[in-house]
Specification:
The complex is a heterodimer of chains A (about 180) and B (about 220). Helix content of chain A is about 70%, strand content about 0%. Chain A has nine helices and no strands. The longest helix of chain A is centred in the first third of the chain and has 23 residues. The radius of gyration of chain A is 19 Å and the shape is globular. About 5% of the residues of chain B have low confidence. In chain B, helix 3 crosses helix 5. Chain B is built from five helices and ten strands, in the order H-H-H-E-E-E-E-E-E-H-E-E-E-E-H. In chain B, the strands form two sheets. In chain B, strands 3, 4, 5, 6, 7 and 8 form a six-stranded mixed beta sheet that branches. In chain B, about 25% of the residues lie in helices and about 35% in strands. Chain B is an alpha+beta fold. The chains are: A mainly alpha (about 180), B alpha+beta (about 220). Chains A and B meet through helix 2, helix 3, helix 5, helix 8 and helix 9 of A and helix 1 and helix 2 of B.
Chain lengths: ~180, ~220
């Protein structure tokens, strides 16, 4: 969906057209939900954040300016702000309970769940600034320039954070790499 | 660990899909001005249909007549459930009043069959009536100008034809047809003495008479 269409839909949505807002929602909610879920780890919280971001768009006080950024960039930024705010307010910032390996499931399934959990834990242990850059780049495939715009930092800073995040993950997850497994064996 | 191996590890972390309910939750959370439903009239029509179906039965025709002794007979042909009316879209109804009896016929051009009854009424004078029902004594062709009525085959009444005493204003039924699927067509009859039908009686009859037309009209909106 191009920016012009989005802008028209947003105008309609702000003037009371429910379907226009739902079209924008259909276009963007999937990546926003995944981003929110990876940051906060709770599906219900992620859904709330996405919903609130869209509702905030309708308010006259909404900071979105189509001349300054795309709607996608703005929405990712809104979800990000909410996610960190919630996580800071939440004393127990632990994510969804780690998946419990089902002893009846095949061994490969158990290992897959364990690996997934290890990756999630490793990413959540990163500093916030690295976490968000890594998630946006690795999982949502956002261009570095858009991440820079979203986080209001220079592209160089984005690259740097991404490199540091990846380096840290290589260390943390070394035991799960094929070579590491061979070494363990 | 090289970059490809790290990518492979990172990509093992899959996010769940958002719940489909999120969209509806957003819709529900919209301020009232945004909660316009462009197809709200369809929801309203569906509500009307549901309400009509909830009434349980539908009238296929009605009539009023006064017998020779002054007994007023109010008759309406009903189908239960109303949706069964669509299986007999061209079915018809004929009433014939003579002396102290009334004959009623239900016929269906689709099956070229009809059922008919003869209702005899004897007032006791204390607000009760002795009624007896038996198969119609005239053929459909004798009482109706329906095309090809002479070719219609009479089928027996599904219920027993017994005499009974009914009170004034008390409705009773004469079963005319029980379809294989369980749908039932019957005549609903009320007897009263000497009181002409009121405006509200006529209004009620008119509503009942148009009941099926309304159902068909609403069905037409959706099909």
């Amino acid at each position: 969906m191009d920016r012009g269409t989005e802008q028209k839909l947003l105008q309609k949505a702000r003037s009371g057209d429910e379907n226009a807002l739902l079209r924008l929602f259909d276009e963007h909610h999937g990546p926003l939900f995944r981003f929110a879920w990876r940051l906060c780890g709770r599906a219900a919280d992620a859904e709330d954040m996405v919903q609130e971001s869209f509702l905030a768009l309708l308010k006259p006080s909404s900071a979105f300016d189509s001349r300054r950024s795309s709607l996608r960039t703005y929405l990712f930024g809104a979800v990000r702000n909410q996610a960190w705010k919630r996580l800071r307010c939440r004393e127990d910032s632990s994510a969804d309970p780690p998946p419990v390996a089902d002893l009846r499931s095949p061994e490969s399934e158990t290992l897959r769940a364990e690996l997934e959990h290890a990756v999630a834990r490793a990413i959540r242990q990163l500093p916030e600034a690295q976490q968000e850059v890594l998630i946006l780049a690795q999982y949502e495939q956002l261009p570095l320039a858009e991440i820079a715009e979203l986080l209001e930092i220079e592209i160089g800073a984005v690259k740097s954070r991404l490199q540091r995040a990846r380096a840290a993950l290589k260390d943390t997850l070394a035991d799960y790499a094929p070579a590491g497994k061979e070494r363990q064996a | 660990m090289n970059d490809q191996e790290l990518d492979a590890l990172l990509n093992s972390w899959q996010a769940p899909s958002p719940s489909p309910a999120t969209r509806e939750a957003l819709r529900q959370a919209l301020p009232p001005a945004h909660r316009r439903r462009p197809y709200g009239w369809m929801a309203a029509a569906a509500g009307i249909v549901a309400a009509i179906f909830l009434l349980g039965v539908a009238s296929m025709g009605s009539g009023q007549a006064r017998l020779a002794d002054g007994t007023y007979v109010k008759t309406s042909l009903q189908v239960d459930p109303p949706s069964a009316r669509q299986q007999m879209p061209k079915a018809g109804h004929v009433l014939l009043t003579r002396g102290s009896s009334q004959q009623g016929y239900f016929f269906d051009p689709a099956t070229q069959t009809y059922t008919g009854y003869k209702l005899a009424v004897k007032p006791f004078g204390d607000g009760t009536y002795l009624t007896s029902v038996e198969p119609a004594t005239k053929t459909l062709a004798q009482v109706s100008s329906t095309a090809g009525a002479g070719n219609y085959r009479q089928v027996p009444l599904p219920g027993p034809t017994v005499a009974r005493v009914v009170r004034e204003g008390e409705a009773f039924e004469i079963a005319l047809l029980v379809a294989p699927g369980g749908a039932r067509v019957y005549e609903r009859i009320e007897l009263s003495r000497g009181e002409p039908p009121s405006f509200f009686d006529h209004l009620g009859d008119a509503i009942r008479a148009h009941h099926m037309m309304l159902i068909h009209w609403i069905h037409g909106l959706f099909n």
